[in-house]
Amino acid sequence: MCGIVGYVGEKNAQDFLISGLKRLEYRGYDSSGIVTLDKNGKTTCLKSKGKIAGLEAKISKNKRSDSIGIGHTRWATHGEPSERNAHPHRSGKIYLVHNGIIENYKVLKTKLEKFHKFTSDTDSEVLTALIDHFYLDGEYPLTNAVVQALKLIHGTYGIAVVSELNPNEIVVARSGSPLVIGIGHGETLIASDASALIGHTRKAIYLNDGEVATITAKSVEIKTLDSQPVSAKVETIKTDLTAIQKGGYDHFLLKEIMEQPTSLTETLRGRIDLNEKTVHLGGPNLSEKELKAIKHVIIVGCGTAYNAGLLASYYIEQFTNDITIEPVMASEYRYRHAHVPDHSVALIVSQSGETADTLACLRDLKSQGVKTIGIVNAIGSTIAREVDGGTYIHVGPEISVASTKAFTSQAVAMIMFGLTIAEAKGIKNSFIAPYVDDIAKLPNEIDNLLQSLQETIKTLAEQYKKYDHAIYLGRDVAYPTALEGALKLKEISYIDANAYPTGELKHGPLALIDDRFFEFILLPEDGLYDKSISGVQEVLARGGHIIVVTDSTDFSLPVENTVFITTKLKLLTPILMNLVSQLFAYYITTAKGLNVDQPRNLAKSVTVE
Ligand code: M6R
Asked: Is 218 exposed, middle or buried (0-12, 13-18, 19+ CB in 10 A)?
């Protein structure tokens, strides 16, 4: 949600800023801008509405050799996407880029209007004017002015600020929006996401909430807002350049779908013992005794992460009748007055590890004394750092806004956590073993499915791209899978897709069936297969345009299309079915000629409420 970059050193700042912004474009892409300063503090500020390519074109006509600057790619919160609202914002001699939301901006704006003529609709310009107000045209050090201003702010921020009066220094601060400082040779880089730093340096300092850093080419000085010095921990960025490139695919989304055999293998590495038929998750940091004592598991996530949690909950509750599972949407849960039973643990699920709603729940649950366990992808992210323990899913950077490989690995990691509890509670190994076997087979099964069905699904997508509405149906574990399929389709193809439990059809959704809709029905050959068949019949009888996805070789109803899945899995087939949904959403979107990786109105990492 918005991307920030900054550079101070000896090289060309514009070059790093534009390459960094391109890497962060997935975080927000409605407008962008940079400001660079020459040695005398003369500024060049360039902004553009729309994709970074527009800004790049402007820069190529305004090349500068300046070696300090800051940049921003925006996902609009306050004010429409436009050049006027694009960052950097200016007040007097300072420029600012901001990620987050200033909640009390209205009150502050009214007070500052006497001193500053506002030219944008943003909350960020208010913060710029406030810092400028304390800066007193350079009478006061910039860092102090930033601190004074931040003490009056309610909300979230990751910011970078420069001044024409000191073209050697960038001041950055964070509260609720990530900021990473990259340490190079004679240069210092900043970014809201370490991916912008890859290829420039591997040494990084992750700023914590409430910290402010004064940065020059050769120094980084960090303090808290209360002026307490902070000794920074320099960490190593392990990701390689290849992980953030398309690697021959047309889109990141297809790359990430096709990567799943390997990304899931990474999730499982060292965590499955096929001889003993057990799982070993070290990260949660729970002793045998603590695992045994668990009575209630809350699973917190948003969007795809929630769907993965819901899916895992259907499995975990099968493992032992000694615990209850409560999957919750973080955006709702954070404002509920939910009673947390004794002996609860919370799984905090997030690909990015930065989702504001999920983070708020984590902090709230921790403050109630609940043990929190992260199911996170982004290493070093805020959630990963704040949980009591956790299991990284290790799927590598997920760049396409639509989450795919993270879903599969989140679901499997949580199922493994459930098995870990079951083992500790003394559930017989003969019960656990088939799940362990299925998990171990999954990467290979995913590979087979992706190889064998890609062309079939591409053809199917051509047939259904004309529809404006879709209904996804599934029962039991296939219901969360249907939810995830519908989310994927709607967010990238803009087809209005909703999911229902197949058994709920007759309670309302059946009224929708007409020629404007198609129905995507997940039909695993499980204990509810015959009952689900009735659901298919009900839609068929009303003239539905049905696609059935099934692993049953018996299925023979005269629906429009059937996708047969050949698999050796006994228990985890719905996870495989989700890959069909992923490919289907991808191919419909490409067939419609839409932007697959950066769908309209969305951003990858939702760090605002
Ligand atoms: O980074 P997170 O996993 O916390 O993100 C949660 C959701 O914002 C995310 O899954 C979103 O729903 C995706 N765009 C879905 O594809």
From this structure: middle
Domain 3-244 class in CATH: alpha beta
The residue length of the chain stands at: 609
Domain-wise residue ranges, the chain? 3-244, 246-427, 448-596
Provide the residue type at 139 as one letter: E
Residue 608: the pLDDT is 75
Domain spanning 246-427, CATH architecture: 3-Layer(aba) Sandwich (3.40)
d(CA 495, CA 486): 9
Residue 37 has pLDDT above 80, yes or no: yes
Instruction: Look at residue 389 in the predicted model and tell me its pLDDT.
Output: 95
Determine what percent of the chain is predicted with pLDDT higher than 70. Answer: 100
Residue 1: predicted pLDDT: 63
Q: Where are the beta strands (DSSP E) in 184-230?
A: 188-191, 203-206, 211-215, 220-224, 229-230
Ligand 1 centre and the CA of 486: distance in Å? 14
Do the first three CATH levels of 246-427 and 448-596 match, i.e. the same topology? yes
Catalytic residue among 2, 49, 255, 490: 2
Q: Is the pLDDT of residue 372 over 80?
A: yes
Q: Would you call 247 exposed, middle or buried from its count of C-beta atoms within 10 A (0-12, 13-18, 19+)?
A: exposed
The yes-or-no answer on residue 490 being catalytic is: no
Q: What's the pLDDT score for residue 106?
A: 94
Which of 27, 304, 311 should be mutated for ligand 1, with most atoms under 8 A from CB?
304
DSSP assignment of 142-205: HHHHHHHHHTT--EEEEEEEEETT-TT-EEEEEEBS--EEEE-SS-EEEESSGGGGTTT-SEEE
Mode of pairing for the β-strands spanning 235-236 and 203-206:
antiparallel
DSSP letter assigned to residue 342: T
Pocket test for ligand 1, best of 253, 393, 403, 414 (most atoms within 8 A of CB): 403
Residues 418-474 have pLDDT tens digits of 999 999 999 999 999 999 999 999 999 999 999 999 999 999 999 999 999 999 999
Q: Which residue ranges have their beta carbon within 6 Å of ligand 1?
A: 302-305, 350-352, 355, 358, 401-403, 487, 491, 605-606
Which residue in the block uniquely carries the two structure tokens 């032992």? 320
Tell me how far CA of residue 371 lies from CA of 129, 191, 344, in angstroms. Answer: 42, 31, 7
pTM: 0.86
302 is known as an active-site residue? no
User: Class assignment of domain 448-596?
Assistant: alpha beta
Give helix then strand counts, H and E, for the chain.
17, 27
Span 494-499, average pLDDT: 98
Mean pLDDT of 283-295: 93
Please state, in angstroms and rounded to a whole number, the distance separating the CA atoms of residues 417 and 410: 10
Confidence of residue 135 (pLDDT cuts 50, 70, 90): very high
pLDDT score of 337: 86
At residue 307, φ and ψ (nearest 5 deg) are: -60, -40
